[in-house]
Structure formats: C-alpha cells, structure tokens
Amino acid sequence: MMAAVSETKEPSKAARLGFGGVGRALNELTIVVGFVAISLYLAVTTPAFLSTANILSILLASSLIGIVAVGETFVIVTSGIDLSVGSVVAFTGVMTGLAIHAHFPVPLAVLTGIGIGAFCGAFIAFAITVLNMSPFIVTLAVLAMARGLAFIVTSGNTIFDFPDSFDNIGGGNLGPFPIAALIAAAVFLVAWVVLSRTVLGAEIYAVGGNREAARLAGIPVNRTLAIVYIISGALAGLGGVVLAGRLDSAQPIAAVGLELNAIAAVVIGGASLFGGKGSMLGTLLGVLIIGLINNGLTLKNVQPFWVQFIQGAVIFGAVLIDSLNQKRRGRV
Amino acid sequence: MATLLEMRGISKSFPGVRALADVSITLQRGEVLGIVGENGAGKSTLMKVLAGAYRADEGRVLLDGADFAPRGPRDALDAGIVVIHQELSLVPDQTVAENIYLGNLPRNALGMVRRALLHRNSRALLARVGLDIAPTMPVRRLGIAQQQLVEIARALSREARVIVMDEPTATLTIAEQRILFATVADLRRAGIGIVFISHHLEEIFEICDRVTVMRDGATVATREVADWDEAGLIQAMVNRPISALFPARTASIGAPMLEVENLSSTGRFSGVSLAVRAGEVVGLGGLMGAGRTEVLKAIYGAMPDTTGSLRIGGEAVRVRSPREAIAAGIAFVPEDRKGEGLVLPFAVRSNVALSTLDKLAWLRVFSADGRTDRLAANAVDELRIRTPGIGTTVGSLSGGNQQKVVLARALTTHPRVFLLDEPTRGIDVGAKVEVYRLIGDLAAQGGAVLVVSSDMLELLGLCDRILVMRSGRLAGGIEREAFCQERIMALAALG
What pTM, to 2 d.p., does this model score? Predict the structure, then answer.
C-alpha cells in the first residue's frame, strides 16, 4: 500500500479544475460578460470609441497598470498585498533616469531599474518571511520609503532628456502596436504560464489557500513568498522604465495611487484578497475593464474629479463581491 | 422514575432513503439517555422529529403520557423540548441575559423590557448551571463551554422538560467538559430528562444511565449502562466483533527505523528519547496537553526551538523543516485536518499532489496534468475515498474521506516513518476501520508508525507498544503482552 499511491492507471475523465478552486471558469465568464457589456455600451453611445487610434490608446494606457497588476496577482493569490508598487514605479523610474544621465547604456539602465525594483521586493520579502511582519504594514512602509527615496535622489526635480532608444520602450510603436502594450502582453503570457502551468504556480495557490497545510505538506512557503514579492518589485521596476520612456521624463511624483488601480484590476479579475484564488486571464480582463472605464469617462467628458470617485466605487464593488463570495462559502 | 418521553415506532423516509425504521426510545424523568451510532445511523433525524423539524411518517410521540405531535420547532419549544446543537445559536453581540431570554424577554404593561427582573432571573439561572459571570457580559467574550452553559440556562428559562445535547463536547477542552458534566448531573437531579448524543464512548459511560444503539435507521439495542462495555457498544454499532476492527499484528518487526535522542523543545516537552522499529506500530498516549502533538511536530521539523538528534534507518539526519523531513522519509498526518492537513477550497487532486508537485512536473517546472490525475485517481481507488471525482472540492467530502485524502497525500512521498496525530478523530466507525487497516498495511510493508491517540481502545487494538507522556516527558512504556488500560491511565495521570 505504501507504493500504492503512485501513477500507473488512467484516470477517469475528471474535470481539469484544481488549483484556484472549482468555479473559476464560471467566474471568468462573468468578467467577460462585464467586459463585453461595457464595450458595447461605449461603442453604441460614443462613436469615437471604436476608432483604431482610441483602441490603441486604451492599450497603451493599460500597459503600465497591466505590468504592475501581474505582480500584484501573484502576491494577492498568496493572500498577501503589495501597496508599494506605485512608489516603486516612481523610484525605479528616477533611478533609471539617473543611470542614463550617468551614461549607462540603455539596456543596462533598464536592467538597473528592474533590479532596483526586485531589490525593493526582496526587502519586503525579508521583512515578511524572516521578521514575521504583515504584508500590509511592510508594503505600506515601503510605499512611503520608496516615494521618499525618489524625492531624495532627485531633490524633488524631474529628470528628462532621454535618448529615443529609451523613450521608445514606453512610447514607441512596432507596426501599429505600442511597444509598451507588447511588453505587457509578453509579461501576461509568461505570468499566465507560470501561475497556471508550473510547480511555482501551484505552490503559490497552495500557500494562499492554506499556509499551514502547505508548509506541513513540504512546500517551501517562505521561498514562495519571497519569489512573489521579488516578482512584484521587479515588474514595478519594469513599469517605472516603461512610464519614464512614455513621458520622456522621470518624476518622483509619478504613479501616485497606481497600486489601487492594480489591486482593483486583480480583484475585478476574480482574485480573492483572502488568497488561494485568482488567475492571470482574470487580471488581464480586470485591467482592460479599468482601461475601458477610464477611456469612457474621458470620451464622455466626465469631470476629472468624478473619475477618481468612480474608480474608488469600482474597487469597492469588486471587494464587496469578493467578501460576499467568501461568506457564501462560509470561510469568513 | 416516571416515563417522561416515549417515541414509539417512528418511521421517516426521504426520497430514496429510509432514514428511520420503526424506532422506539423511552426517557425517564431525571435520566440521561445516551444515543450512539455511526454517522448516518439516524440519530440526528430522530432528534429532528422530536424537535418538530421533521414530521414522522409513522409512529407516536408521548410526552408525560399525552400525545405530542409538534407541527414545528416552536411547538416543541413550548412543550419544553430543547435541542442544543453543535453549532451554537447565540447572538454574539447581545448580553448573556438577553440571549437567555432571546425572543422571550420579560416586559411590563407598556412593552418595555424589565431589565431588573431580566438580570435577577438570569443570575439565578446562571447559578443553576454553575456559571459565575455577569448577565450583562456580551456573549462574544465567552468561551465555547460557557456559551453552551448559557444555552442550557436558556433551556431552563423555558422550563425545559427534555434537553437534547447533540455532540456537546466535540469542541470542548477537558476542563470545560467537566463543567458541562457537572451541570448535566444537576439537571438530572432536577428531574429533567436528557438525551446525550456523542461519538466519545468514554463520555457515554461516564454520564449516561441507559444507552440506545442505532444502526441503519433502526434501534439495535437499549440497555442500562452497566450492562454495556466499550467493545460491546462498538460491536453493536458496526455489527461485527471488536477484534475485527483492528488488523492482525502480523508484521515482522525489524531494525530501528526511527530513533529519537533527547528531543526537547523549550516550554513544550523535554528529554524525549524513543525508537520505532520497521514494521512496528507504537502508540503515544497521555492526556491532552501532555506534549504528544508537539513531539510529532518536532520530529517532523515543524516545531521551532527544538534540540535533540534523529536517526532514520540508522543514519543521522538533520530535519529543520517539513520539507527536509519528507526528504528524509518521514510523513506526518496532523490532528487538525481542516486547519493543517488540507487546502479545503482545492480539488481532491490538488490536495493529493501537494507534497509531490515538483516530482510530478515535467523538468520539475511545468505541471503535468496527466500524471497528477493518475496519481489522484489511484489514491481514490486504493484508499477507497468516496468522492464524486478527483476534481471535487475536498471541503465538500465527509470527515472520513477528507482524512483519507490527507493520508493519501502523505503516502505520495514514499515515506518509511509515519507520524500520525489522532488519525481517526471525528470520523465514523466505518472509516476508522479502513484507517486501521491502512496502518496495518504500512507496518506490514516495513514502515515505522508512531501514532498519537486519545482513544484508549484504539491504542490497545492497534499498537505493538504504547509510550505514555505526562506533562512534557515520557512517563513509561508498555509492551503489547502487558497492555492494560489502568496502567496506561496511571502512567498518564500519576506515574
């Protein structure tokens, strides 16, 4: 019997649902319906919506949130949270800018930005796994620290005047497509493979689903947590590079509140803040829904003051749905 | 004693199932009647008929000699029949007094709540159940046992004649259980009839006057408690002799497989040295809190601040984490199945694969669904896990089948040392037997099994040797030939 539990026999035609919980497919369908509904509404009511230029601008505007939301998805599935990403985008952006001004070749400057982001993630991971601090508090602290560092290293000034080869990363096009959107698409593709098709992905779900059970089952919980925060930091670094390129400048006040957009996208995409549940496809849809809402508000000339309020209301609604789902499953 | 309650010839069917077939019980004034049986034997259905939640298809209920046919729970309450469920029904944010008189608050002519009277009456009721707390305390701040006593006080406030307790001790500590039992004794003296449902046979023997055994929706036997013994009771519950519950101890015992030297963990236990040989099942007995669980976790590398040395199959190993323990050939099945054993919202297949994610993967990186499915399907087959499929959420399975999933997951790492913490807690007798058989098979194949259990019969039936712990130390050991319940209890409690 000891050797009994090993693989020798064909399985019954069982459902492919496993990690991330049963019912995920249904969830994603709901999001798709929401996405299609918003698109239809905008297409019918605003003629400019369906123009190629507008759609490409939605993609460009969504690429930064998308890159950051990918990292946030990994973190949230482990039942953590990363509030620092907006500040890390700003900090890595100005550091990349400083590197270019220090005559770093562009590829090296880009790697510097990503590397500093990864270092911020590693610092967060150290505090969470070794010092046993809570993700919320640690990343809140890093939110302030990274923002502060961005001001310190620039003395509060904007850094500008970058070579075209750098600006193209954020603002250029490849054929009709914005390069930033292509980068985001590649990030999503790789992240989708990692989360749904690899051992690391399965471990991330398990750690978020029940950390103690995962630990006792032999899953390296701390290593898994460290990896997700480092990924999140590195992607925020990539986001900083993309943003600096798009604006042809790096500002210490860039990307304020970006973490809220990213978290909203992840939660709209069906992930649970209680952990163990979520998917990259859902997050992609969540990012696009937020892009659509922002675009629609602009096209319809809604006062900018309202934009922030509506974004907040969307986050509230998404978290409310998450909480109600939890209650129905009796896990609160 | 006078007959207080009689249920006569009760039958109840649900579509496709005959839940109760001609069931009869009687309850005297001032009597505690135990009802035991496996899950699905019909205990809860019978009590729901009594409480007015279900209506019987056939049969009569007589309360104090008069026909009693409740049309709903309200009728039963009004007649003085109160059921205290496992899940308590108190309102956490209201005070103790308000909960006792929930839906029944004393009012004056203007409809205002008479606070002074409410609190005076509540104090009297709390005193009757031996609870020394202020009636104005919010229920949220009470422990589970205290909440249970508040429920009993509520029952008394309604002038209960019959109190049904459904698995009341499932979540209690031993100290809390003592308080509950003292209160039950008081209620008995006051002439209230009590129906006591429990899986824990020791409790049945301690507190009941008579015991009714149910099986497959029928009453098998009712006797005075003195005319039962534990083995006879189990036999009546499962319909086979007790010796057949446990696998025959045929394994040939070999060289030491697990050797623990001077294991200590600050504030938990100290100086624990033990050895388990290949093919041997060793029990670790003792009272709750004696440090048994902690010893297993320490061996498994899951307990911080542990010192001591470990040898597996004669070779010294260092185990600093569960991951290293698994690599060294150790498997651990935790006591808290839902909190530590399973990821409840995940499918059966994911839970089975949890310890072998990297081994199942292609190049140790990419998930291999086919292999995972085969592993899970095999586990379901071999351990006879009753589940609609390997894609079913593990949280929706019964306790026994959940436990088999945990065991299956532990087996996937091909361990040689098995640390099992209360492997049959809270599962029905049928599933217990299957777990016993599995443990026997593991030993027969040369595994070394160290099992913690609070079930004396289980330790005696299953083990080749029993070690007893008392307040963080090993108090002694007994070989199978010398097994004796009294000696184990003596070691556990006195030394």
Answer: 0.74
